[in-house]
Amino acid sequence: MAATRPGSGATSELAASVGLTDDDLIGMYRVIATARAVDERMWVLNRAGRIPFVISGQGHEGAQAAIAWPLERKKDWIAPFYRSIATCLAFGMQARDILTAQYAKAIDLSSGGRQMPGHYGNVANNLVSLSSPVATQMLHAVGIALAAKIRKTGQVAMTSMGEGSSNQGDVHEGLNFAAIHKLPFILCVENNGYAISVPVERQLATPNVADRASGYGIPGVIVDGADVLGCYTAAKEAVDRARRGDGPTLIEAKVIRLTAHSSDDQQTKYRSAEELAGLTANDPLPRFRAQLKEAGVLTDELESQIAAEVKKDIDEATDFAENAADPDPSTAMQWVFAEQWPGETPPAWGFGGSHGTEGHEGDKSAAEGAVD
Amino acid sequence: MALKTFIEAIRETMAEEMRRDEAVIIMGEDVGLKGGVFLATDGLFGEFGGDRVIDTPLTESQIIGTSIGAAMNGLRPIAEIQFADFIHPAFNQLVSEAARMRYRSNNGFGVPMTVRAPYGGGVHGALYHSQSVEAFFAHVPGLKVVIPSTPYDAAGLLRSSVRDDDPVLFFEHKKMYRSVRGDVPGGDYLVPLGKAAITHPGTQITVIAYGLMAHYALEAADVVAEEGISVEVVDLRTLRPLDKETVLSSVKKTGKCLVVYEDNRFLGYGAEICSIVAEEAFDYLDGPVTRIAGPDVPGVPYNHVLEDWFMVNPEKIADGIRKLAAY
Lengths: 372, 327
Known about the structure:
The complex is a heterodimer of chains A (372) and B (327).
Chain A: H1 13-17, H2 22-47, H3 61-68, E1 77-79, H4 85-90, H5 95-102, H6 136-151, E2 157-162, H7 169-180, E3 185-191, E4 194-195, E5 198-199, E6 220-224, H8 228-244, E7 249-254, H9 273-278, H10 284-294, H11 300-323
Parallel strand pairs in A: 1-2, 2-3, 3-7, 6-7
Antiparallel strand pairs in A: 4-5
Helix pairs in contact in A: 2-3, 2-5, 2-10, 2-11, 3-8, 5-11, 6-7
Chain B: E1 2-5, H1 6-20, E2 24-28, H2 44-48, E3 53-55, H3 60-72, E4 76-80, H4 91-98, H5 101-104, E5 114-119, H6 134-138, E6 144-146, H7 151-163, E7 168-173, H8 176-179, E8 181-184, E9 197-200, E10 205-209, H9 212-225, E11 231-235, E12 238-240, H10 244-254, E13 257-264, H11 269-280, E14 290-294, H12 304-310, H13 314-325
């Protein structure tokens, strides 16, 4: 079978089977490959002492790209979580936006260097700013969906989180409210089996998070997170349902966590070597690549071309982020509110201080004891 | 001018804001047909319908969290927490989310949301229907905290709060809902956030108060005036941002400062006022910066004798003024 060329609008049997074009499939593949490559770069930079902290999405990328795909960029909303690199890339962020966040530079689109890496979100892409207390974003997405319904904008709001976060009370309160009002809302739980070190058996009394959906009278759908097109199909159905006004859906994607929880975690303390070795069988990247090749959508040539483009993109983004300016302390009291308040007292030491990289470069404390 | 109760001023202002701007919605427990347990939203469900006056489940975190989300997608929610005592399940949403959204997104997102909650004791509300919670939230940069004391200010400050682009906590002393009346002019006037008012000019002692205590401070000022003590009462109106200028210029004039608050004394909001006065008006002080505040017990007890013991009142404030005047 002859491979389709990007931009040709061709539709292979595989693409047609899920109502997409080959460009969509290649687009998803590119997001997944970029997310993986950015993620791997982050770890290299961390271990080289260039960036203090990494929190990773490796293993989640297939589900993330596919589930974000049916949502409309710059119209619909996503409240992501800290592993959502592929989600953010699928929704409009670029590798450069991820890497400037890793370096916490002034130009960082998500927070201007104020937040830890992994807290992606920016208004230009309708990606909600994220905090660290888990699952708080649940209610923001539900509120966005409520506003969409009241304002009749036709928007859909989705949030994603791990199965660990799904145990928080805000998730219950949000699902209940979204279901009562049939809000255009989707909860995507990316279940990788661990809340840092605590395995899923000690987090859930039922085998699946999706089992809880029946308690809210909404569909709970389980998908294999390595089956990219299966994830897409489930998400498409949920988006259509939400857009029709039929209410929320809970999608649970069974994914794998290929890395430690973060650069400060040593997962060999709680995961066996056998378990870690077996993970690659469910890695979405090689699986999707093989599927696309078998369907004739991706050739060796196109694969190499995409790999080279992704590498170039990430190399340039790394250099850009490395050389970008740090935020200036004179800006540190800005944007507490929309306007300046003279009543807020600046610190006794003013706004001076080192503007250099001293302080975190060469600081190995973040990586201490973390060997994955 | 029309004479209105405190709660009438609040209710009518919400109705006017909802007529003026269809982005304004109300969300809370029993705010719909019932019109709220204090009837603050009475009649609004009938006028604006269930899409804009939303009865929620008993889920305070959801009330605040979905208001934050709705505010980010074009609405201006007024969230009602039935009693300030019940706001704590939403503490995370207020402190970790609403307060930090603008700062953490480097001005990408804002949360134009007003959270109304009745607070305060002296109404036989016991431990869980009497609390003053302003200190928890005034501590957090990114939250504005407003406590009006008159119907005029309630209307003007509520308008400013609803139209503000950042989260405002608007605490209403429940004992004042029907006991306090005042003139409220028609028309679309604003009382700006962050501006205190001198409600009783005087020369010898500055008494700083807010909410119900602003009334009690006025009563105490009248009592001690007969004894020849001239008191200047500053009603803060907005706790954060604080109108430091009015506070400090009054203290610099009188040389003495008494801070009054109903909340527990230890680390209460007034402690910060004392600290600012001590730091920034030291050269002008002619006596210790003092406080009259609620006792440090975990709540207002129910029995009326115990409740009376807990509550700050004009007599207790007058005693504090006399002691300070003796310096």
